[in-house]
Amino acid sequence: MNYVYLDNGASTRVDPIVLKEMIKYMDEVYGVASSQFSHQPGIMARDSLEKAREIIKAGLNIREGELVFTSGGTEANNMAIKGVAFESEKRRKILVSGVEHYSVLHSARSLEIHGFEVITIPVDGDGVIDLEWLEKNIDDNTLLVSVQHSNHEVGTVQPIEEIVKFAKRVGAIVHTDAAYSFGWIPIDVEKLGVDLLTITGHKIHGPKGIGGLYIKKGTPIKKWMDGGYNEFDMRGGTENIPGAVGMAKAFELMTEEEVERVRSMRDYLKERLLSIEDTHLNGSEKNRHPANLNVTFDYIEGESVVLHLDMRGIGVITGSACFSRSLEPSHILMAMGKTHEHAHGSVRYSFGRFNKKEELDYVFEQTEVVVRKLREMSPLKGGK
Amino acid sequence: MGIPYSQKVIEHFVNPRNVGKIENPDAKATEGSPACGDMVRIYLKIDEKTKRIEDIKFESYGCASNIATASITTELAKGKTIDEAKKITWKEAADALGGLPPVKVHCAVLAVDALKTAIENYENQHGLIVNKKPTDEKKVRERLEHVIDPRTGLDVIRSKLVQEIDVKDGIVTIKVDMEKEHQFAGNVESELKERIEPLWDVKEVRVVFNKS
């Protein structure tokens, strides 16, 4: 059997259709996207960049001049948070949830030395932010609230519309990191009501190195990268046209039908894995990203599970401390109030287009064997 | 660059030697805790006359290097006398595995510590302590530095979970800053006892919780 890659939440294989589309923009259309008064290759490049932008804008209901391409989700998050902070004259409070991606958490924390106060919005056991807490703590000194659309590790989808409601009352700006949701969960920026929204290309079988930031007209934000007047004078630098074209193509391929197909595979494995004794689902059961599955196997440690599964041709990851470079357990599971032990036993299976239903029984069987093997040697089995 | 583990680590991880429990062991010891993500328990069967380790088994809750270092440690110790086995260092265990990534060295320390503590427990209970110093507060404190506070992942001395230690007539009283109803209370109590009870002159260990 071929290797079963179930780490699509980290990154995905570029779809061959996307790849084919992109190549043209490296060896045929290679000009820079310059003004309409330029040479033919430049105009062709500009038109293809704008066509890609149109496709994404239409899909997210974004208006003219409100979508800036970036090098990915991390840059878009940096741009949103730091850009808003450095444009603010008075407000000094930034609220972020504890389950954010590091590019949000660390961007926010980097502002503390510039006099900003960064406060963590608590989340419940499923990772959903505490709206009551937010309502009480958001005030007219609050500059920005940044809460992700859906979580990359446990898949929980946040109540963004409710957050916007509270933020509007006090005039705070709302950013949401939709890097993992983009293409997987329908998004309408108008309906959502956010001011800033991050997207990325490589979690939907598009290329790495491309992402974007939706900036609602009138949002006070500082130019991110100095250079030329590219991207509505928000981000200097030659545009990544193959990337933009690839992201747009990948986005087009994420049809409702495609998402449902992936969701049903996820649901199938979820059911099977949860039939293993002392196994728990992490993240919200109801409000969940369609391609994410995260479970904790009690009494055992995730790195051992991951290595054993890799040897059996299955690629997954864990929130265990032993797995991380920092030797810290997943900050997301910890923010959700889970114990270290719970985080150590967590394993994420994240799906993509190229997974096959037929592989999933193998994944389940191998997981069950590995879990049993490790439990047999665990001093915790039988649990104190 | 492949996976940062040597072939030997992977081999011991996939086929660990001496896994399991020994019923009625002559000694056992646990190092680490679920809170740190690493835990090893070692069981010993020791020949009373020759003081040779006849059988040794381990249980592990941990990553690949945790399992591999415990496995190699049992291999190194099996058949040795307890005096010889006591001298095994974590460096020897790591070397025998063809080295460990720097962030995983603590796993070797943990496995070798578990072996040493198990032997020390045996010596305490079999009158083999050469220098029969009576147990005092310092000794108790030293031993408790190996017990992990499940709430913080720090040892119980550093985390200030242990508030007071009193040693009198072979009775060790440990006052802890935790309520009896706490979800980890039972856990803490048994781990503190397991760590102190083997000392040769300790008759009883009392763990006193906060009044709720």
Give the arrangement of secondary structure elements.
The complex is a heterodimer of chains A (384) and B (212).
Chain A: E1 4-5, H1 16-27, H2 40-60, E2 67-70, H3 73-87, E3 93-97, H4 102-110, E4 117-121, H5 131-137, E5 142-146, H6 160-170, E6 173-177, H7 189-192, E7 196-200, E8 211-215, H8 230-233, H9 241-253, H10 256-274, E9 279-281, E10 292-297, H11 302-311, E11 314-315, E12 317-318, H12 331-335, H13 340-344, E13 346-350, H14 357-376
Parallel strand pairs in A: 1-11, 3-4, 3-5, 5-6, 6-7
Antiparallel strand pairs in A: 2-8, 7-8, 9-10, 10-13, 12-13
Helix pairs in contact in A: 1-9, 2-9, 3-4, 10-14, 11-14
Chain B: H1 7-14, E1 27-33, E2 38-46, E3 53-61, H2 64-77, H3 82-86, H4 90-96, H5 105-125, H6 137-144, E4 162-168, E5 171-179, H7 185-196, E6 204-210
Parallel strand pairs in B: 5-6
Antiparallel strand pairs in B: 1-2, 2-3, 4-5
Helix pairs in contact in B: 1-2, 2-5, 4-5
Named CATH topology of the largest domain in chain B: Sufe protein. Chain: A
Query: Could you tell me the radius of gyration of chain B in angstroms?
Result: 18 Å
Query: What summary fits the major beta sheet of chain B?
Result: 3 strands, antiparallel
Q: Spans of chain B of 5+ residues with little confidence (pLDDT < 50)?
A: none
Strand residue percentage of chain B? 15-25%
Q: What is the radius of gyration of chain A computed over CA atoms, rounded to a whole number of angstroms?
A: 22 Å
Overall spatial form of chain B: globular
Q: How many structural domains of chain A? A: 2
Number-wise, the strands of chain B total 6
Number of helices of chain A: 14
Major β-sheet strand ordering of chain A = 2-8-7-6-5-3-4
CATH superfamily of the largest domain in chain A: Type I PLP-dependent aspartate aminotransferase-like (Major domain)
CATH topology of the largest domain in chain A: Aspartate Aminotransferase, domain 2
Distance between the termini of chain A: 39 Å
Count of alpha and pi helical runs of chain B: 7
CATH class of the largest domain in chain B: Alpha Beta
Structural class of chain B: alpha+beta
How does CATH name the architecture of the largest domain in chain B? Alpha-Beta Complex
What's the pLDDT, averaged over the residues of chain B?
A: 90
Which stretches of chain A of 5+ consecutive residues score pLDDT under 50?
A: none
Please, what is the average pLDDT of chain A? Answer: 95
